[in-house]
Specification:
Blueprint (H helix, E strand, L loop, with lengths): L3 E4 L6 H12 L4 E5 L4 H6 L2 E3 L5 H11 L3 E4 L5 H6 L1 H22 L2 E3 L2 E2 L10 E3 L10 H20 L3 E2 L1 E3 L1 E3 L12 H11 L2 E4 L7 E5 H13 L11 E2 L3 E3 L1 H11 L4 E4 L3 H9 L3 E2 L2 H7 L7 H20 L1
Helix pairs in contact: 3-5, 5-6, 7-9, 7-12, 9-12
The structure holds serine.
Amino acid sequence: MKKILIVGAGGQIGSELVPYLRGIYGTDNVVATDVRECTGLSEEGPFETLDALDGKAMEAIVSKYGIDTIFNLVALLSATGERNPQLAWKINMGALMNSLEIGREHNCAVFTPSSIGAFGPTSPKDMTPQDTVMQPTTIYGVCKVTGEMLSNYYAQRYGLDTRSVRFPGLISNKTLPGGGTTDYAVEIYYEAIRNGRYTCAVPSDVYMDMMYMPDALRSIVELMEADPTKLKHRNSFNVTAMSFTPEILAAEIRKRIPSFEMDYDVDPVKESIAKSWPNKLDDSCAREEWGWKPQWDISSMTDDMLAAVAKKLEAEKK
Ligand code: SER
């Protein structure tokens, strides 16, 4: 990885992955792109406005900067996808197909995140294995499974260096996720600080895998830097850091803010999606093949999130 292109850089992952990669590989070697202008990212280093569905425009940027690695972060998330499945397919698969095709023509490595959403109700719920039944019931999951297979196909057919992780719900404090089923685990911290209470759209007792953003960023770089001869899998590796329910997370917050209250107004779409996903992934293949190991748990993450969100909301008031 010497010249990196980030597609969809303005989202929850990209807004943190760009500065993280710029810190490791040098500011000028990380070109951020998004369909919208992103002031923060463009002030700090190279930035181009790019609609990921415009393959010609993507190719022009790859040529202009001599890109050798593409991170494709474009996606409509699970709950939003259910509101417009055709659009979700068009955007999620279109951005991936362009990344793979341009990767093939310009010999670039391609990273695309997959998700716990690639699993479905027929997958084993607990310690969900790396290789198992994958029959998702959301359009988001259908795109993720297809994307995994397509990326493996490009690796096998064209020798393209494609790699991916199946991310759990990602918790972060820079850019909000939008339209995901796991969003509650981010929103809860903001509302705990703002109002001391939160109304959760996911039922109290549904377990899902989660990960704090610093672990997610590190996992991406560690996988992309891993020795390819050690990789038995490519697209995509189970990774996880913790598994909890809304009630468990609320209790963790209550240890720090005893007056915190949570009630429920369950969204039937999110409920059915959450219940169709694993309770907890088995990420032993990632641990064995490239040394994956999370560093953050629910307690350390909660300390850090509450402090960071409080600081951010305070700064916004000024
Ligand atoms: N966080 C995503 C969602 O909830 C899952 O990958 O849609």
